[in-house]
Amino acid sequence: TERTLILIKPDGVERNLTGEILSRIERKGYTIVELAMTTPDREVLAAHYEEHQGKPFYEPLLEFMSSGPVVAAIVKGDRVIEGIRSLAGTTDPTVAAPGTIRGDLGRDWPGTVQKNLIHASDSTLSADREIEIWFG
Ligand code: GTP
Ligand code: MG
């Protein structure tokens, strides 16, 4: 069994979609084992988004992610990393498949960053790394 890190981004919390998103994860049969709400500081976000440093969307992304509370969770289950990426849908919410969190609930909104509701670790390596960053 695996563990993964998910974040409900500030747009998801602001739109009152926390319950809806966690509910989809639970209905799929995955188990939430840690849960926290926090407005992340720059240091946490810089560590979390290390791989995107220098990209044109990096600064707006950090700005957006620190703009309000996020919900961080550790989720457990067989092949949960792959499973939650699949539940989330592709990065761009406008074209993410219907049936996914991003596809059903997201679209482009005015602003500089893609507000796509959820982050989910993309490998066992990033899951371990991100769980350490958010939960120590
Ligand atoms: P995460 O689960 O959040 O990591 O999304 P992802 O793995 O689908 O995307 P990726 O790691 O490539 O990018 C991280 C986040 O940066 C995305 O979720 C978006 O919020 C934002 N982002 C990625 N690519 C772009 C882009 O081309 N333009 C803008 N404005 N934002 C982007
Ligand atoms: Mg990513």
Automatic annotation (TrEMBL):
Q: What class of enzyme is it?
A: transferase
Which InterPro entries does the record cross-reference, listed alphabetically? NDK-like_dom, NDK-like_dom_sf, Nucleoside_diP_kinase
List ligand-binding residues for ATP. Answer: K9, F57, R85, T91, R102, N116
- PROSITE patterns per the record? NDPK_LIKE
What molecular functions are annotated in GO for this chain?
nucleoside diphosphate kinase activity
So where's the catalytic machinery, residue-wise?
Answer: H119
- The EC number(s) attached to this protein equal 2.7.4.6
What cofactor does this one take? Mg(2+)
Q: By its UniProt entry, which SMART domains does this protein fall under?
A: NDK
- Gene3D superfamilies given for it? Nucleoside diphosphate kinase-like domain (3.30.70.141)
Q: Which UniProt keywords apply?
A: Kinase, Nucleotide metabolism, Transferase
Name all Nucleoside diphosphate kinase-like domain ranges.
Answer: 1-136
Task: Say which family it is in.
Answer: Belongs to the NDK family.
What is the name of this protein? nucleoside-diphosphate kinase
According to its UniProt entry, this protein's organism is Citricoccus muralis
